[in-house]
């Protein structure tokens, strides 16, 4: 059997635990950039972290549970929702970085917005972004953190779709 065939036929439990490890690794790298590299996350970056955390937690539960086919599809659907949410935020931030507003607004931080306003009012403010959401402080292979986040959420969404249509037994 080829390596690709083996990877494609791994049990769902193993695949979900691999996704969990990947998401936690990405979150850890973000914390490294923040605390060691001195990069302060903007409100949109923090929302993307929450989406990665949500994906990681669902993947962990899926990996520990070892679900059957139906359960695996439920976990995959939840992961897809998290990936879509995080990917939407990353796409908006990437767009803002490509086409920055003429007058960048340096609005309040995420914590202040969530404590001071109802969620319905805070979310539009978060998605408008702040001046620091437009800043590109770090790149790798020419892509910003928001770009890499979008790539990762897209791959996570593709993984979730694959898990939804996969015919293999989940165990």
From TrEMBL:
Keywords in alphabetical order: Cell inner membrane, Cell membrane, Chaperone, Disulfide bond, Electron transport, Membrane, Oxidoreductase, Redox-active center, Transmembrane, Transmembrane helix, Transport
Organism: Thauera mechernichensis
Residue ranges crossing the lipid bilayer per the database entry: 12-34, 46-67, 74-91, 145-165
Compartments it resides in: Cell inner membrane; Cell membrane
UniProt-listed SUPFAM superfamilies: DsbB-like
Protein name: Disulfide bond formation protein B
Lineage start: Bacteria, Pseudomonadati, Pseudomonadota, Betaproteobacteria, Rhodocyclales
Disulphide bonds in the chain: 42-45
Ranges per topology, Cytoplasmic: 1-15, 68-73, 167-171
């Amino acid at each position: 059997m080829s390596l690709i065939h083996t990877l494609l036929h791994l049990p769902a439990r193993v695949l979900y635990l691999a996704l969990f490890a990947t998401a936690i690794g990405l979150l850890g790298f973000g914390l490294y950039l923040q605390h060691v590299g001195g990069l302060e996350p903007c409100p949109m970056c923090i929302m993307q972290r929450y989406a990665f955390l949500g994906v990681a937690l669902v993947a962990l539960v899926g990996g520990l549970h070892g679900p059957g086919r139906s359960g695996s599809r439920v976990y995959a659907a939840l992961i897809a929702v998290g990936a879509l949410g995080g990917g939407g935020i990353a796409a908006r931030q990437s767009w803002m970085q490509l086409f920055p507003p003429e007058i960048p607004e340096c609005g309040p931080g995420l914590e202040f917005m969530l404590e001071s306003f109802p969620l319905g009012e805070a979310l539009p403010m978060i998605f408008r972004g702040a001046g620091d959401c437009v800043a590109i402080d770090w790149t790798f292979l020419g892509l910003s953190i928001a770009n890499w986040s979008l790539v990762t959420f897209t791959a996570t969404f593709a993984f979730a779709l694959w898990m939804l249509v996969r015919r293999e037994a989940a165990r």
